[in-house]
Design a protein that fits this description.
Blueprint (H helix, E strand, L loop, with lengths): L4 E8 L5 E9 L4 E11 L2 H14 L10 H29 L4 E12 L4 E5 L2 H8 L3 E3 L3 H5 L9 H11 L5 E6 L2 E7 L6 E8 L2 H11 L8 H5 L4 H7 L28 H21 L8 E4 L6 H11 L3 E3 L10 H14 L7 H4 L9 E3 L2
Parallel strand pairs: 1-4, 4-6, 7-10, 10-11
Antiparallel strand pairs: 1-2, 2-3, 4-5, 6-12, 7-8, 8-9
Length: about 375
């Protein structure tokens, strides 16, 4: 295989909105070229199955355990991934083939490093068999088994992106998916710190779905009409997680936020959005050095209310990845393509400063067609 690898990455995150797919060419160190992208939204039957699997997964003992609900969700999740890869092959055959590897994250339904347990649904062997490409999966497992947090995994890719964009350092890249996480990149190669800051979009999404049946507060429209209950935000920030020293990571459903449902829908969305912004600001305050700017990627980059709240609470300029030429919706999918290549080459993907693992580790399991 040549020095440069063409990899396809897929990510279906804790927001449960669907599957992001992206192609990159890389040597596993510097990002050479970002290629075609695609998105497949989850169907409602798939989201319903995943929600049922989320509830069941909290009660299993090992990552290989499957309840009936988890098996049903895994079948649907795998089928959805096969479908998007096949469709992608048809649409972009001349631009993306041949592929050397697929980086497959799967759908996280439980994550608790204190139990050395992280569960992602998805059958990598079937994906390899039905697409014809080798697949790298289980990228969190070695880290968790070695005592690390197993998350976040994207920081090493964030560093490559920042280097290729020649951004001023120190820099904070904030990914706001279902859970929010931060990558702090300093001027030295070893200056890489990352951790989950707290909730991202999940609490807002769940509130809107519970009360209206819609998937999210698109564009922060509901939050913009509401009034923040600062007393509730302050009470939620007393959660002991926010005082823990990073690295640290979270399950999607780690916060319950009592009192939110007693507010109007608009006030509830405004207050939950403020909580996300405040918890990110709290995380940034834990960094050993500040940041000259904050770059936001992930679904939260499309919520101007959240971005404004974050800038006001951090007193640091906030930009979206799109403003510097990145595609904020596909950074994580690109990252899992990049991580698959590093796994192939035996390069580390997690580090003491990003997950708390004792030494830099590579990870991943190969599934071959």
């Amino acid at each position: 295989m040549s020095q440069f690898v063409r990899a396809l990455g897929m990510m279906s995150g804790t927001s449960m909105d669907g599957i992001d797919l992206a192609v990159i060419e890389t040597d596993g160190k510097a990002v050479v070229r970002a290629g075609a992208t695609a998105f497949r939204p989850y169907k409602e039957v798939e989201r319903t199955a995943i929600r049922a699997a989320l509830a069941d997964a909290r009660h299993v003992a090992t990552r290989s355990d499957r309840t009936d609900a988890m098996r049903e969700a895994e079948e649907l999740v795998t089928s959805a991934h096969v479908e998007i890869v096949r469709d992608f092959q048809t649409r972009f055959r001349d631009n993306v083939l041949p592929l050397d590897v697929i980086g497959f994250h799967g759908q996280t339904v439980f994550h608790d490093p204190s139990r050395h347990l992280t569960i992602q649904l998805g059958d990598a062997d079937r994906l390899a068999r039905e697409t014809g490409f080798p697949v790298v999966t289980d990228l969190r497992i070695a880290d968790v088994e070695a005592g690390g947090e197993g998350a976040p995994l994207v920081p090493v890719y964030h560093r490559a992106m920042a280097q290729s964009a020649d951004l001023d350092l120190p820099l904070a890249i904030v990914n706001i998916g279902g859970v929010a996480n931060i990558t702090w990149i300093g001027p030295e190669e070893s200056d890489l710190v990352a951790f989950d800051t707290g909730p991202g979009n999940a609490l807002i999404d769940d509130c809107v779905h519970r009360r209206t049946g819609a998937d999210m507060d698109r564009g922060g429209v509901l939050a913009a009409k509401g009034v923040v209950n600062e007393d509730l935000v302050a009470s939620w920030l007393t959660n002991p997680y926010f005082e823990r020293v990073p690295p640290k990571s979270l399950d999607r459903d780690a916060f319950t936020c009592g009192g939110a449902d007693e507010l109007t829908l608009e006030d509830s969305c405004a207050t939950l959005t403020a909580f996300t912004a405040a918890s990110i600001a709290k995380g940034i305050s834990q960094l050993k050095e500040g940041a000259r700017q904050i770059v936001v990627v992930g679904g939260g980059a499309h919520n101007p209310v959240l971005l404004s709240m974050l800038e006001n609470r951090c007193c640091v300029p906030v930009r979206t990845g799109g403003a510097i030429g990145w595609d904020p919706d596909f950074v994580e999918a690109q990252a899992f393509a990049y991580l698959a290549v590093r796994s192939m080459k035996g390069l580390p993907i997690t580090f003491p400063g990003t997950t708390g693992v004792p030494v830099p580790l590579t990870a991943g399991r190969f599934a071959r067609p």
